[in-house]
Every structure is written in C-alpha cells, then in structure tokens.
Design a protein that fits this description.
Elements lengths: L1 H24 L6 H13 L5 H26 L7 H6 L2 H14 L2 H6 L6 H11 L4 H25 L4 H59 L1
Helix pairs in contact: 1-2, 1-3, 2-3, 2-8, 3-7, 3-8, 5-7
Length: 222
C-alpha cells in the first residue's frame, strides 16, 4: 500500500495527498496514517516541501472529517438509510457510539482521530446527535490532528530512504498510540464513574432532605 501511494503522490503531488485524505474521511478503506506517511516519504525524497505537506495533510484530514460531521448534522437519522453509510455504520454501531458519547462525553471526538475504522461512524454520530456545535467539533478534531498529522508526516520524511526502519517505526508508533489511548480511556472511565457516583449521592441527599421536610411539615400539621 505504501509503495503504491508513494508512486501516486510522486506523480500527482499535493493534490493527490489532499484528495486521498478526504476520501479516507468519507470511508475509503485506505489507512489514513499510511497516507500521511507516504506524503512524508515524498517530502523526504525531495519531491515536496515538509511544512507544505503537513498543511496539506491537515486540510485534507479536517475537511474529510468535517464533511462526515456535516452529513450527520444536516440529514440526521435519515443518513442511516443510505446504502453507502449502512456499509460504514449499522444501527447497532450507532447505538454503541451513542453510549460512548453518554459515558465519555465529547472527548470521544478527540480519541476517534486515532481510531482507524471508527473515525467516520463516530463523526457522523456526533453530527446526528446535535449535542456538539460545529466549532467545538473542529476544535477538538483539529487539536487531535495537530498531534497525529505532523507525527505521521515527519516519520515518513525522516525514514524516506529506509523503508524497513519506516515500517518498524510505524508499527511501534501504533502500539504506543493504542497504549496511550488505553490510559486515556481508563482516566475518562474513572472520571465518569466518580461523576456518576457524586450525582447519585446528590440525588440521595436531595431525596433525604425532601423526606425530612415532608416529615417536619406533617408534624407541624399534627
């Protein structure tokens, strides 16, 4: 895959990188990280500028993500009737993602940027839910992209002439990213549990106060 993308990008330049990244955002089964790495490779070989490649990568990633979010926001539940969307996200997946939003909040948007295969369904669901504004979506997705895009492009640039080392680093980076995401999810789960516990305690306290008030009122009446 990397060799094909490298050849394609070497021939057609920034426009090819930009277009493929948008298609990745729309659900094309091409790994986004490998696409960015391939863009970095051609910059490392002197066929493109590193900074420009990072900017092109950012633009392609954010536009692709934004299109999916907008699609969900504009069409709402109707989007699930599309055959194309049905291949990406089933009603069961939609319910599962909704549960994740309920549990972890809008931080799911940030985490999704590092989850190939789940990115598109999560962004569509975020748009459908109506619980997050377009600006907030762009800020959270953009912050995550500021981490992932330069990282993958730089890896490709740095190891452009050593494919074996490049593939090894990509593999190791994926492992590190998944470990960090696992830690983040644990932290978010702990926060959710504490928030839920505090909410339950507050509800019990309120019920107890209401009961005491009712008893006091009853005693005064008697």
């Amino acid at each position: 895959m990397l060799d094909y993308l490298e050849l394609f990008f070497s021939t057609y330049g920034y426009l090819a990188v930009f277009s493929v990244l948008i298609l990745c955002g729309l659900g094309l089964p091409i790994p986004e990280d490998i696409t960015l790495v391939a863009g970095g490779v051609i910059s490392g070989l002197g066929q493109a500028d590193l900074l420009t490649m990072i900017l092109v990568g950012m633009a392609g990633v954010l536009i692709g993500d934004g299109l999916m979010f907008t699609l969900g926001k504009v069409l709402g539940p109707k989007v699930l009737n599309s055959r194309w969307i049905a291949k990406i996200m089933t009603p069961e997946n939609y319910e599962s993602i909704q549960e994740k939003f309920d549990k972890y909040g809008n931080s799911v948007i940030f985490v999704a940027r590092f989850l190939p295969g789940l990115r598109t369904p999560i962004y569509i669901t975020a748009g459908m839910s109506g619980r997050i504004s377009y600006l907030k979506f762009v800020l959270m997705d953009g912050f995550a992209a500021l981490i992932s895009v330069p990282l993958w492009v730089w890896v490709g640039h740095y190891c452009a002439e050593n494919k074996e080392l490049l593939l090894e680093i990509v593999s190791n980076f994926k492992i590190v990213i998944f470990i960090l995401l696992g830690i983040l999810l644990i932290i978010l789960t702990i926060r959710w549990y504490k928030k839920r516990k505090n909410k339950k305690l507050a509800e019990n306290k309120k019920l107890a106060e209401n009961k005491n008030n009712s008893n006091n009122l009853s005693n005064l009446t008697d």
